[in-house]
Amino acid sequence: MKLLLISPASAIHTIRWANSLINHVDELHLVSMHTILEKLDDRIEVHHLKIKAPLGYLFNYKALKKIIVSVSPDIINTHYLSGYGMLSYLSVNKNKTPYLLSMWGSDVYIFPNKSIFHKYLIKLTTEKATRLASTSIAMRKEFQKIYPSYKNEISLTPFGVDTKNFSPNTKVKKNSLFTIGIAKNLEGKYGVEYLIQSFKEFNERNPKSQLEIIGDGIIKEDLKKLSRKLNLENKIIFHGRVNNNKLSNILNTWDVYVIPSLFESFGVSAVEASSCALPVIGTNVGGLPEVIEDNITGFIIPSKNPQAISEKLQILFDNVELRVEMGKKGRELVLKNYDWEENVKTMMVIYNKTINDFNSKN
């Protein structure tokens, strides 16, 4: 199979898909207008589009058309219904090549809500796809709620983890402090400020605790200001961006993982934490209730609720046995449903279904 992947090379999700799928296809070509930030397999041929985003989503279509003709792929897989989805809409001939369009959270939870025009654009870009794919049941349902006229099947393609890399490691030295952590892009939609607010109350009751935040983003300085305002600058560690391959080493030094998101399409960071046998506290949004079993692998709480976070942290602080049991159950859940190699095999099955769909219609 010759696969043409159209996706932002700056996203770890793109890198992970590409580096894994190359082991299951004959050729893999990656088209992107974004800079590659992590190691990409040497066997992958990268095609850089010259016009950068956002203008590139409209004006790179001639270049992309030429790439499609020269590569002559057996299947095209574009990530994002918006952005790259629009570029593909302008470039892909739906009568010549099977075309899988993979939705991301912002495509469903943010972009269509901006205006009637934005909502229409998503409807437009999906019309050319042979098949759509979603990483979670929740996101698929939300898409179908917004676009009830869309009747075609939407395949599930979970984005799991390398369970060998993300695994419990008892050799990693635990911090003497009770350590709470999160690893996310520092953007408003992930509600990190609510975690910091909850930590203020929790730390006052339990001073032998600390909060570690991994990630970079547009609100990083705002979060640092908030920590100073709450007199927590000596209690909160901002790690910045950490290579995904090294993330598990840090996770294994933590006691609890918290995801206070305002929306979440799937929740891969929760899966990474559970795979390392950490109990996870997450909000009742998007795909998080699918990957966190309430009262079994962690706790599900309302969003924008620092008090709820603090209360669940206290329960886990007071009960070591419960932390261990939830971590154990979380690891079992990941091994059963979110092992990365199985997820890649699922994607290959979806590719073949998409090709068969295309051939049956043409």
Describe this structure in words.
This protein is of the alpha/beta class and 362 residues long. It has 15 helices and 13 strands. The longest helix has 22 residues, at 340-361. It is elongated, with a radius of gyration of 21 Å. The model has no long low-confidence stretch (mean pLDDT 94).
Provide key terms for this protein.
single chain, 43% helix
**Biggest sheet features:** 7 strands, parallel
- Taken as a percent bin, the fraction of beta residues is 15-25%
Distance between the termini: 19 Å
Helix content: 40-55%
What is this structure, in a nutshell?
The protein has 362 residues and is an alpha/beta fold.
Topology:
Elements lengths: L1 E5 L5 H10 L5 E6 L12 E4 L7 H4 L1 H11 L3 E5 L4 H8 L7 E4 L2 H5 L6 H12 L3 E4 L2 H10 L7 E3 L21 E6 L8 H14 L3 E6 L5 H10 L6 E5 L6 H5 L4 E4 L8 H8 L4 E4 L4 H4 L6 E4 L4 H13 L1 H18 L2 H22 L1
Parallel strand pairs: 1-2, 1-4, 2-3, 4-5, 5-6, 6-7, 8-9, 8-11, 9-10, 11-12, 12-13
